[in-house]
Amino acid sequence: MALTTAAPTAAARPDRHVLAFVVTLVMVALGLGLSSVLALALTTLGGQTGPLCADPPALTTQVPQLLILGIAGAGFVGGGLLSRWSPRFHPEHPAVSATLEQRSVRLAMRLTFTLVFLLLTALMLVETFTLYLHVWPITYYVRCANQASPALSVLGAAMYSFLAGRWLWIWR
């Protein structure tokens, strides 16, 4: 006995305009949320009269690191799921696949990825030299922010991960 699934009818599929509206609404809300997190962080920094954290910052804070990683991972997966629902930019959409077949577009994408990885390599070199010169590495600043305002740090990490998942997740 073979199991078959019927193709969804037009009535069962959500309207593309409704999906596009919902996706746009969520992205605008996230953009406003990230702007609010930045404004809150700047407000917090502006009111400080002394150092925010010890030198070096503590390795552990009020929020366990595994919880932070779990929230950021859930944000990434949530962004990836939302990217699947975006009707205009799906890799199987005719306009997207036609654009990706153009040689100039593929070349631009490869150059962009190359530049991004070169920038990341340069940042790793800067990190190495700052450690050599006994200047705080980037991870100390992240730990200091987490020590100064754990809730704000977790919220910012979750939103950033959501956007990264939205942009980097490719469904096949």
What are the main properties of this structure?
172 residues, mainly alpha, disordered N terminus
- Any idea what the shape is? globular
Total beta strands: 0
Question: What can be said about the biggest beta sheet?
Answer: none
Beta percentage is under 5%
- Which percent bin holds the helix content? 55-70%
- Backbone structural class: mainly alpha
How many DSSP helices? 6
Low-confidence stretches: 1-5
Element string (H = helix, E = strand): HHHHHH
Average per-residue pLDDT, rounded, comes to 78
Radius of gyration: 21 Å
What distance lies between the first and last C-alpha atoms, to the nearest angstrom?
29 Å
Overview of this protein structure:
Helix 1 packs antiparallel against helix 6, helix 2 packs parallel to helix 6 and helix 5 packs across helix 6. The two termini are 29 Å apart. Helix content is 69%, strand content 0%. The protein has a domain of 115 residues. The N terminus is likely disordered. The protein is globular, with a radius of gyration of 21 Å. The chain has 172 residues and is mainly α.
